[in-house]
Amino acid sequence: MTTQIHNPAAVQKAVQELMPLVEPLLAWYDRSHRILPWREHPTAYRVWISEIMLQQTRVEAVRPYYERFLEAVPDLSQLARIPEEALLKLWEGLGYYNRARNLKKAAVRIEEEFGGQMPDNREQLLTLPGIGSYTAGAIASIVFGEAVPAVDGNVLRILARVRMDDGDILNQGVRKAAEAALSAVMPKERAGDFNQAMMELGAVVCIPNGAPRCGDCPWQSFCRAKAAGCAAQYPKKAPKKARTVEKKTILLIQDENRTALCKRPSRGLLAGMYEFPSLPGHLSEKEVLAWLEAKGYKALHIRRLEEARHIFTHKEWHMMGYAIRVDELERPSGQAGVPFLFAGREETEEKYPIPSAFSAYAGYVRVRLGNEKFGDDPDAV
Length: 381
Fold this sequence. Notes:
Elements: H1 8-18, H2 22-32, H3 44-54, H4 59-72, H5 76-81, H6 84-91, H7 98-113, H8 122-125, H9 133-144, H10 153-163, H11 172-185, H12 191-204, H13 224-228, E1 244-254, E2 259-263, E3 274-275, E4 278-280, H14 285-294, E5 299-311, E6 315-326, E7 341-343, H15 345-351, H16 359-362
Parallel strand pairs: 1-6
Antiparallel strand pairs: 1-4, 2-3, 2-7, 5-6
């Protein structure tokens, strides 16, 4: 079956099917939900930061970042004033860095247009940078008790399975239909708990990868996909376009104790971040040495490094690398066209935000990225 937003009868049918699921869902959530730092003292700022961090990022990866972020940027006013590089450094390793930039843009807007107070309703929240329908619904319901749905991929997945709905969950009509049906069934006095229960069910029971844990599900006696033995076949999605592949040659250029870094352009992929110098294509040692010489650098030693791959949403980087030692005394200083700076390891770790796309090469120069700096395993997205 499919549910379309332009078909009121189909939406009403979905409402009738979902109504009996509300009570067992909330009872399950009351006894089983995880204790998470953003669920304690759910102020607008705390919930907002958590929801932005959790977009396309797992809870386990977000936890340490969330706590460090709140310690460094404890309120909206400080978020509005933090320098961009410092903000990106806090975000280093989480990926999708426009999320961080939009946080700052939204904080500035809130100070200018809302007197420094987070808007308390979905419609005004939707006017802020980086806040879409799901995030606006989550903040409005969890913090302010507004009875509005928060529909993301997790929610669409569990609805597709329980109803055996073969609608394409990437289709906006399917999402709008889900929002309409959930708006009609959510308990007005527990809107925030209802939305969090839906999120929780999709995160820990009706999981996206691997077999769903149907034995732990409060909806197991209602679920049509479970009864038919085909839960893994839902939800339905249109095929994704193939990612484009870019070949890159990464250069770890070092003098006695510093490593060369470049700042990426202010727009586009990984905008404003720092990286190890890179060249398009997979270059030979001879080609790399010629490029360095043209830039005024004399290589004392060059060594081929391992190949690595990093996957973004719409593209892949296929990388190879070279470790290169240059003479500090012969290194150009202020020369026009020389695109990089040299920084020591501690300075790099504290000051310059480097995306996790380069994590395979950072270890060669003893630079730790993201959670590695705090004794944890890196968890890039």
